[in-house]
Amino acid sequence: MVIGLYIFLFYSRKIFGLYHFGNPIKAIILIRHKKTTALEELFKDIVKLDEVEAIYPITGAFDVMIKTRFKDIGQISDFIMKKLSKPALAAKITRTETIMTLDTLKEYFGKP
């Protein structure tokens, strides 16, 4: 019974995104991409990062907004310093700004 429940939870996390329950810290990261790089190329790299929950092309001073979740501040630091700073990805980015969320007042998962 316990093994079956564990397997269900493991696959539920992968299929339904339930792994986020263990990652309580949310951060929004704004990214400005280098104009010499196609935005689609940046999307292809970002989508591979496990911590990224959503990617939004946006207007304004930045080009991309990513919604991320982490277990702790150290994981955020590692994400920014190690994953976003990898040469292949950093070469496509000119600036980032990280915004920490304090609370979730509403999060809707239904149909629009």
Oligomer: single chain
User: Total number of helical segments?
Assistant: 4
Rounded average pLDDT:
82
What's the CATH class label of the domain at 23-100? Alpha Beta
Structural topology:
Elements: H1 2-16, E1 25-33, H2 39-46, E2 52-57, E3 64-70, H3 73-83, H4 87-90, E4 93-100
Antiparallel strand pairs: 1-3, 1-4, 2-3
Give a description of the structure:
- The chain is an alpha+beta fold and 112 residues long.
- It has a domain at 23-100: Lrp/AsnC effector binding domain/regulation of amino acid metabolism (RAM) domain (Alpha-Beta Plaits, 2-Layer Sandwich), CATH 3.30.70.
- It is built from four helices and four strands; from the N terminus they run αβαββααβ.
- It has helices at residues 2-16, 39-46, 73-83, 87-90; strands at 25-33, 52-57, 64-70, 93-100.
- Strands 2-3-1-4 form a four-stranded antiparallel β-sheet.
- The chain is globular.
- The N and C termini lie far apart (37 Å).
Descriptors for this entry?
about 110 residues; Alpha-Beta Plaits; 4 helices; globular
